[in-house]
Write a structure and sequence with these properties.
By secondary structure, the protein is of the alpha+beta class. The protein has helices spanning about 40-50, 55-65, 70-90, and strands at about 10, 15-20, 20-25, 40, 90-94.
C-alpha cells in the first residue's frame, strides 16, 4: 500500500473498548445479518484509533514505530496484513 493513502472508517462499524479490550461491531438492520464481532489486540486497537480520515499511512507508521518495539519491515508486513483484513470486513471506506 502506498504511504500517501488516507484511510477512513466505515460509519457502519462501531468500536467499543471494554476493560482494555477493543471490539469492532458491524451495525446491521436485522439481527439475522449480525454474525461477527472483531476483537483487536493492543497494536491493532492503536491502528484503529489512528485511522481518522486525515492521517496518511506514512504518518500512522511513524507513530507506531515510535510507540511499539518493531522494525520497519515487521511493522510494514503486519500493518499491511491488518489493513487488508479491515478492508475485507468492510471496516474501512475508500
Amino acid at each position: 500500500m502506498h504511504n500517501t493513502v488516507v484511510f477512513k472508517k466505515n460509519p457502519d462499524i462501531v468500536s467499543r473498548t471494554i476493560e482494555d479490550e477493543t471490539l469492532l461491531m458491524p451495525i446491521y438492520k436485522t439481527s439475522d445479518e449480525m454474525n461477527c464481532i472483531y476483537t483487536l489486540n493492543d497494536v491493532a486497537a492503536r491502528v484503529w484509533e489512528l485511522i481518522d480520515g486525515k492521517k496518511s499511512l506514512a504518518a500512522i507508521k511513524k507513530t507506531l514505530l515510535k510507540e511499539f518495539d518493531a522494525t520497519e519491515k515487521e511493522l510494514n508486513k503486519e500493518l499491511d496484513k491488518f489493513l487488508k483484513e479491515l478492508t475485507q470486513i468492510r471496516a474501512l471506506k475508500g
